[in-house]
Amino acid sequence: MTDLPAWPKPDDSARCPCLSGATYGACCGPFHRGEALAPSAERLMRSRYAAYVTGNVRYLLATWHPSTKPSSLALDPDQRWFLLDIVRTSRGGMLDDVGTVEFIAKYRLGGRAGEQHENSRFVRERRRWYYVDAI
């Protein structure tokens, strides 16, 4: 264990953890608080990344498609996510019901750097985007 606080607390005036360039209050904050729905697969992916950064398990489970959602999710508070790079997207726009987002997310754990490179699949049902799985 490190001496880091368990999870960073998001501040609406701070830069959003998803690295969109917007503030948290204008970007992922409204999604995390349930005030708005992500309008695209990429925005949902970014908001899910920000939820990993902030330890928001409730949001991660709520945006996971019921067909693949785990019954519980435990995050390691020592794993610190620090960089998100969107490689490419396919569909997943406001007029689509499916889409994919390929990304690279970098983290530190136990003093070592690592990365997750994934092509995530998303589906929209009843105006709400969900993460399905990695392909």
In words, what does this structure look like?
The chain has 135 residues and is of the alpha+beta class. 18% of the residues lie in helices and 33% in strands. It has helices spanning 29-32, 41-54, 57-62, and strands at 80-91, 98-109, 112-125, 128-134. The protein has a four-stranded antiparallel β-sheet, with helices on one face. β3 and β4 form a beta hairpin. The protein is globular. The chain starts with 28 loop residues before the first helix and ends with a strand.
Major sheet attributes: 4 strands, antiparallel
Please state how the strands of the largest beta sheet are arranged side by side.
Answer: 1-2-3-4
Which parts are unreliable, with pLDDT below 50 for 5 consecutive residues or more? none
Helix content: 10-25%
How many β-strands, per DSSP?
4
Shape: globular
From the helix content, strand content and strand pairing, which structural class follows? alpha+beta
**What integer value in Å does the Rg equal?**
14 Å
Task: Please report which band the strand proportion falls in: under 5%, 5-15%, 15-25%, 25-35%, 35-45% or over 45%.
Answer: 25-35%
From the N-terminal CA to the C-terminal CA, the straight-line distance is 32 Å
Mean pLDDT: 95
**Tally of individual helices:** 3
Topology pattern, helix = H, strand = E:
HHHEEEE
Please provide a brief summary of the model:
The protein is built from three helices and four strands. The protein is an alpha+beta fold and 135 residues long.
